[in-house]
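**Archive record**
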Amino acid sequence: MGDSIKVKVSRRGNALRFDMPSYMTPSSSGVDLRAAEEKTIEPGSWALIGTGLYLEIPMGYEAQVRPRSGLALKHGVTVLNAPGTIDADYRGEVGVILINLGREPFEVKVGDRIAQLVISAVCRVGFEEVESLSETARGAGGFGSTGLK
C-alpha cells in the first residue's frame, strides 16, 4: 500500500449518524460520500447535495469528487462537474452537484452514497512563455484524431 496521509474531518448535522469515510476494499482508490440531506432531482435538473463533511486537506494535495458508477448505470445520475476539485485551503462543507440525466425523478435520501472522494497529490508548475513548441508526429490533432480512420 502507498504512503498514507491524514485528512482532518469535521462532521456536522446528519453526517454524525454515519461512519467516518473509509475505503470499502484494500484496493479502493476512493471513499464514498453520503448525502446529509434529502432532495428530489427531476430529469434534466441538478442539485447541490450537502454531505455534512468539512475537510482539512494537507497542502500539496486535493480532493476530487467523482461519480459512482452504479448511480450512473442504474439511474442516469452523475456528478455534474466531474471531477469536482476541493483545494487544500477550502474549509466549507463538501457538496456534491448531482445531475439527473435519467427519465425519472431521482430521490436522494439521507445516508445515500452519492459520490466518491479521492485524495490526490498536486504537482505545482511554473509556466514559461515561448514563441513556438517542439514538433511531434501528432501535432495539433485532437478530439479523436488518434482513433480509427
